[in-house]
Amino acid sequence: MRPYPPEAIEAVTAITSRYPGAHGGPVHWGDPAVIGIDASRLSRPDWGEAVEIRPGEVPVFWACGVTAHSALLGARLPLAITHSPGHMFMTDLVDAELEVPRGVETTSAIDFTNVLAE
């Protein structure tokens, strides 16, 4: 979750939605209760550091790889490579390889087969 002034949300959504191979666009903004999050928990996140919501800002939520940590922990895998809050997973892919050009329809599933095969 990151807070933004309401007038910035359209631009934030337009920019981040072009990178569905990263976090993609927001999944929700506004009242956290709509997506099952108790607003009082925003100051005590399960992962990462709390972010202050200043007057006039609204919380904006993204799907994130950190969310999958719970599933990985539950799976008790011997090894998993991922990232931690504020410490992104590094790769040799550049932004342009992850970007979906404006006007191109996207789905929630990204096929990295060609990228990984190279």
What's the arrangement of secondary structure elements?
Layout lengths: L1 E3 L4 H8 L11 E2 L28 E4 L7 H7 L19 H4 L14 H5 L1
Antiparallel strand pairs: 1-3, 2-3
Could you walk me through the main structural features you see in this protein, from its secondary elements to its overall organization?
The protein is α+β, with helices and mostly antiparallel strands. The protein is 20% helix and 8% strand. It is built from four helices and three strands. The protein has a three-stranded antiparallel β-sheet, with no helix packed on it. The longest helix has 8 residues, at 9-16. It is globular. Mean pLDDT is 79; it is low at 108-118.
Question: What are the defining features of this structure?
Answer:
3-stranded antiparallel β-sheet, 118 residues, alpha+beta, disordered C terminus
